[in-house]
Amino acid sequence: MRASPGASRRATGALAIAVALATAPPSTAALATDDFDADEIARIVSHGPWPPPPVRDPSNRASGDAGAIALGQRLFSDPAMSAAGSISCASCHDPARRFTDGKARAIGLAAHDRNTQGLLDAGDWRWFGWDGGADTLWAATLRPLLSPVEMGSDPASIAERLRRDPSAMRVIEPLFGLRLDDESLAVAAAKSIAAWLETLRSPRTAFDAFRDAIARGDAAQAARYPAAARRGLKLFAGRGNCGTCHVGPAFSNSEFHDIGRPFVVAPGRVDPGRHAGIRRVQRDRYNLLGPFNDERGAAPGRARAMQTRTVVLQHRNWGEWRTPTLRGLCATAPYMHDGSLPTLRDVVRHYSALDLDRLHADGESLLRPLELSPSEIDDLVAFLETLSPSPCGTMANADEEPTR
Amino acid sequence: MQAAQAPGATRLEAQQVVLIYRTQPQPIRVGERFSVVAALCPRAGAAAIKGLAIDATMPEHRHGMNYAPVLRADGVGGWIADGMLFHMPGRWQLSFDVRMAGRSERLAAEFDVH
User: Fold this and answer.
1) Are the C-beta atoms of A384 and A329 separated by less than 8 Å?
2) What does A207-260 look like in DSSP terms, one character per residue?
3) Domain check: are A234 and A362 in the same one?
4) Which residues on adjacent β-strands are paired with residue B95?
5) Of A84, A218, A270, B105, which is least surrounded by CB within 10 A?
6) Which residue of chain A has the CA closest to B58?
């Protein structure tokens, strides 16, 4: 289904205006007379620039350490980190698929209830996992190593694996100390893997080029952005109100929302989402309030542990899931916490025909069915596809390699 | 009592108290933690102030923050609420509940966060 003729004419007209502007001194105000108003321009610009500056995690002493980063990359793909020696982190978080696996629900040593989340840009996140059950990237890395559903290992086995590897110990001991016990070595392994993961960045996209052109008033560059994507972006930034949760350059507020997706995973069994995640992170020995947080001396209001100390468990957290990034979506199908929507078009259709009866009665009153026409669905999908470095339906290639 | 108003500070008035607050950092940005620094001045003849609570909501969305700020005294008669975080852009209402002997007063400010 393509855009209506009227919509195409409007888009062509907008393109002509944009091209004409290229001969005049460019300005954002001039672009605002195009197919976006000033508020929409401001929202579009808020989704960049990309990439953001490198991140460092003060709770992880391995963060930013070159040796730990190299070790972490090696451990990520090492099956010896699992109980059976048969799978590695990369078995589900496949780098060629933007660190996902293409399955609806992950399969580690056993079947998982949730879809595998991508890991690019994870260093920016506040909470980790669909339920935010971890408050750091390293704690989120340690959990699957030890989970019987995922890699099924234990601190003693991980420690043994590391002690047999002199090159690993040459990295770990100067950072974490000598004669470490098994648990501390397992944490060091997780922190090293996290140190590598936080260096991985999504590549720039067609949207980023358009956003930057808008920001600097470059009408000629802006005019290169496809007309359907422009219309989709207008829906995203305008009537769709999508940027309320898909905020900023990462297109995620790193918080949790109920969008009416099912949380019954099997007859008689539910996945409570964020409600369980808060309880889990609060009792997690490896959380920011625990003994393995390396952050010292931060001002009371700035310490990263503040998020874990102040997070509130509320009834409405039932069925809430982390707002995922929209970057690189083409490589991360299927979608949602349970992988229940196979395509981007299915995702947009979900929001178009949202069933309000599925939302909590005491939840936030934000969502409304978008009631999109078929051509508007096409446009919104076209926009979302420009958040990937190459078109949906193509396999990952060298151009899609994450940036460091 | 006359309170000096710091740059970037906002003054709120109620029947019994005047409250001056500012945020650290300024401006508040979506998804970034901030603190609220508040000073309370009882009006002449007002009851003694027993305590203060600080919270925020998005009235249009019918929800509050996902975090309960930690309140502490700043050592010079004021209060600091740490751990505030606005997780969505839009209109937020910041509220201050002042407890006094036998009564309480609420002061509130609304503003847009981007």
Assistant:
1) yes
2) HHHHHHHHHHT-HHHHTTS-HHHHHHHHHHHTTT-GGGTS-TTTT--S-EE--S
3) yes
4) B55, B108
5) A84
6) A364
* Cβ contact, residue pair B83, A247, below 8 Å: no
> Structural domains in chain B?
10-113 (2.60.40.1930)
Q: How far apart are the first and last CA of chain B?
A: 35
- pTM across the whole model: 0.89
With CB atoms and an 8 Å threshold, state whether A309 touches B62.
Answer: no
Instruction: Give pLDDT tens digits for A268-319.
Output: 899 999 999 999 999 999 999 999 999 998 887 789 999 999 999 999 999 9
Residues A118 and A212 in one domain: no
Contacts of B62 in chain A (CB under 8 A): 363-365
Interface test with A, best of B30, B66, B70 (most A CBs within 10 A): B66
pLDDT tens digits, B6-63: 668 999 999 999 999 999 999 999 999 999 999 999 999 888 889 999 999 999 888 8
A306 vs B70: CB contact, 8 Å cut-off? yes
**Containing structural domain, residue A353:** 1-51+204-273+318-404
Same domain, A47 and A99: no
Which residues does chain A have within 8 Å of residue B72's beta carbon, measured at their own beta carbons? 300
Q: Does B8 touch chain A (CB under 8 A)?
A: no
**Same domain? A31 vs A100:** no
